[in-house]
UniProtKB/TrEMBL annotation:
Protein name, UniProt field: Uncharacterized protein
GO cellular component, one term: plasma membrane
Transmembrane spans: 319-342
RNA-binding is among the record's keywords: no
Pfam short name (any one): ASC
Organism whose genome encodes this protein: Frieseomelitta varia
Length: 372
């Protein structure tokens, strides 16, 4: 029975309904609650690459404290949003702000606590994941939230980037959508090759400086942060800090706004990033099928029903022509045109090198005996 890992859902509060309970949390961090402070953190909570140029000038709070304050000011979304006991549900830091992730094995690598404790532990791949049963097509997923949110669905073994497609779930709305997926798997004979030969990477291939494992999205984000670091001499508060590199202040955030064309936000990253695809990959596409408002019902909730269409075709990366095939081809061609085989070439090599050395050694020994 074939099974497919269930999708990961990431939810982020919509910019229009972000409600920050400023007073208590600001005081908890030892920051004076003023209209200027409130305006700045409301803006920071809604920060995007599109509006980053409009960042208010603010220096009352050190930039390296911004992320922790934003984390405490996040909108409350009850746990168990998918009505299941999900051990991977957690809040993650993304380029779009602080988001709630569910069913995401790699979400831990983007949590505030993982970064603050300078943790580089690699989480073992679980033996068993919640999976869609291939024998049952048209499985339904139900998402129920009490706020207007932006949602994204992606591979459980990856993180979202800024250009990940997100769908808005407004309050008092019932949504219907169809989720289709495509899948690429890699056979063992390809895993034994080098990265240069297979042109793709597995998680444990590593190679990134700010993430303990490799995924394409992690590589893209790391490269983007490197561009920001080179051009603005800082790293934004939503990126993992690096020793010796400061966190971008308000003026430097405006600098990022000036260089957004260099950040490949909606483009393929340049070759200098060296971001090769993942060897095993699942991609999800969502297509809306229905949308209805429920204003007449006294509730602020919204509900989305996803019809899951499992992939009918799974693509495999497989080694079609290896070293053994090469030897077979050489032997076949030599046998056809020269009446020789691979063993014949081995014998030629032997008699031209090893046997010749022994022969010369014997001649030298006999010559020495004759002289004596």
């Amino acid at each position: 029975m074939h099974k497919n890992p269930q999708s990961t859902t990431v939810s982020r509060q919509n910019d229009n309904i972000l409600l920050l309970i400023i007073t208590h949390e600001i005081f908890r961090h030892g920051v004076e609650h003023t209209p200027e402070t409130e305006e700045f953190f409301v803006f920071l909570g809604n920060l995007t690459y599109e509006n980053i140029m409009d960042t208010p000038m603010f220096d009352k709070v050190p930039a390296n404290k911004w992320l922790e304050i934003l984390y405490d000011l996040r909108k409350h979304i009850p746990s168990n949003v998918l009505k299941e006991n999900d051990p991977y549900e957690t809040w993650v830091v993304t380029e779009r702000g602080v988001c709630l992730a569910t069913r995401s094995v790699f979400a831990v690598y983007a949590t505030l606590n993982y970064w603050k404790t300078d943790n580089w532990t690699i989480i073992p791949e679980p033996d068993k994941l919640p999976s869609y049963d291939y024998s049952i097509d048209g499985v339904q997923e139900n998402v129920h939230v009490d706020h207007t949110v932006l949602t994204a669905i992606h591979d459980p073994f990856d993180l979202i980037t800024y250009n990940t497609v997100m769908k808005e779930m407004k309050q008092k709305t019932i949504l219907g959508a169809t989720m289709s997926m495509s899948k690429i798997k890699t056979k063992q004979n390809v895993k034994d090759l080098s990265v240069h030969q297979r042109k793709c990477k597995f998680f444990n291939d590593g190679g990134l400086k700010t993430w303990p494992v490799y995924t394409t999205n992690m590589c893209v984000m790391e490269c983007r942060m490197k561009v920001i670091q080179d051009k603005c001499n800082c790293r934004p508060h939503f990126a993992r800090s690096i020793e010796g590199v400061s966190t971008c202040n308000a003026m430097q955030l405006r600098c990022i706004g000036k260089v957004t064309k260099s950040l490949f936000l909606s483009e393929t990253p340049p070759p200098s990033c060296q971001c090769v695809p993942k060897c095993d990959n699942i991609s999800y596409q969502i297509k809306s099928s229905a949308n209805a408002e429920i204003n007449q019902i006294p509730t602020n909730s919204s509900h989305m029903t996803l019809i899951v269409q499992l992939p009918q075709i799974i693509y495999y990366r497989s080694l079609l022509y290896g070293f053994t095939d090469f030897l077979t081809s050489v032997g076949g061609a030599a046998g056809l045109f020269l009446g020789a085989s691979v063993l014949s070439f081995v014998e030629i090599f032997y008699y031209g090198t090893v046997h010749l050395c022994f022969y010369m050694k014997q001649i030298i020994q006999k010559r020495n005996q004759y002289i004596m």
